[in-house]
Design goal:
Rossmann fold; 3-stranded mixed beta sheet; single chain; 7-stranded parallel beta sheet; alpha/beta
Length: 340
């Protein structure tokens, strides 16, 4: 299938989310017509105002919103996708309650089926880094690049064989989420491979984001930005997390949009990850720009701090024209959007 040209109508599921809102902005800048799904029209108009401040055309022929308040409703997806050429799906279901793994799988497969019925040409699904590796574990290879062919099978097995005692741990949620995202993505690729003879129903690309920082458009800080806010307040809790790769959310949004138009993106997993980091490098940037804030003390270096493994992000680097937003700019723009 041909890449989606500017002027094509694309649907962004959950467009008011952190990554999705930047994806919508980048799509408008690239010349696409955008239909964003929302749970609330009040939030939609807040986003329209934010986009207008960014200088993009938000007239009704360029940007529309539709209600999709049930990520398990194939009927709602079909209505949202009707007449569109492409879909970008960064949304996740409510991560509370029972049967979370199946919920994540179904919230991936249901829109894929709806996309087939709607005649969608390209579908961009947001994956996760933990589907490929679990930051902080000692078994991540450091003698080779981590590629799009890798999978976090170790994390999946830990979920499958967890003891009843391990399931009571608050950390077990990460393995539940990891298993859901791994199995959901594998089912998505299987769907593409098996739904038709000859050509697939549409072209699928999966983006694999690292830790997203950068400005928030709506002021509702996601969990990753709450970690930054904690550091600026002197709270060292985020420093217990293993360091890994960082990406500016604006680059992440651009990659989601570029996946619609780049021929080499079809059928690929694309890393949305710019560079490996250690906490001390982040703390140094914060001290440089905010000398009066109670920034925590440096953490001890260790085999996992700074991040020791490397990923093959050559395709995403090429798609971005060889230029990622640097870590210092990313951190400072994120801090400014938090009011610092």
């Amino acid at each position: 299938m041909a890449p989606l040209a500017p002027g094509s109508l694309i649907v962004i599921v959950g467009i008011t989310g952190y990554i999705a809102s930047h994806t919508g902005l980048q799509a408008l800048k690239a010349g696409y017509r955008v239909r964003g799904t929302v749970r609330s029209m009040a939030k939609a108009e807040e986003l329209r105002a934010a986009y207008e401040k960014e200088g993009v055309d938000v007239s009704p022929d360029k940007l529309k919103f539709v209600i999709l308040d049930d990520l398990m409703s194939e009927v709602q997806y079909e209505a949202a996708f009707s007449g569109a050429d492409g879909v970008i799906h960064p949304a996740v279901p409510d991560l509370r309650g029972e049967d979370l793994v199946n919920k994540i799988i179904q919230s991936t497969l249901i829109p894929l089926r709806a996309a087939t019925k709607a005649g969608i040409k390209r579908f961009v699904l947001t994956g996760t880094l933990v589907a490929i590796l679990m930051p902080g574990i000692p078994t991540i290879p450091t003698d080779r690049l981590i590629t799009d062919k890798d999978w976090n099978d170790e994390g999946l097995e830990k979920y499958r064989h967890a003891t009843e005692e391990e399931k009571k741990s608050p950390y077990f949620f990460l393995y539940v989420y990891t298993a859901g995202k791994i199995l959901a993505e594998r089912e998505a690729w299987k769907y593409i491979e098996t739904q038709s003879v000859g050509l697939p129903p549409f072209e699928l690309t999966v983006t694999i984001p690292a830790m997203n920082w950068g400005p928030t458009l709506l002021g509702n800080a996601p969990s990753s930005l709450s970690w930054l806010a904690d550091l600026l307040k002197g709270t060292g809790t985020p420093l217990s997390l293993p360091p890994h790769y960082i990406v500016d959310v604006r680059d992440d949004g651009r990659l989601h949009v570029l996946a619609l138009s780049a021929p080499e993106a079809a059928g690929k997993r694309i890393w949305a990850a710019s560079e490996p980091v250690g906490w001390n490098a982040i703390l140094a940037i914060l001290r440089k720009h905010y000398p009066n804030q109670p920034i925590p003390e440096d953490t001890p270096t260790s085999p996992i701090n700074p991040c020791p493994w490397r990923i093959d992000n050559s395709l995403s680097t090429k798609l971005l024209g060889g230029q990622w937003i640097g870590m210092e700019e990313c951190i400072m723009d994120a801090a400014k959007s938090l009011g610092y």
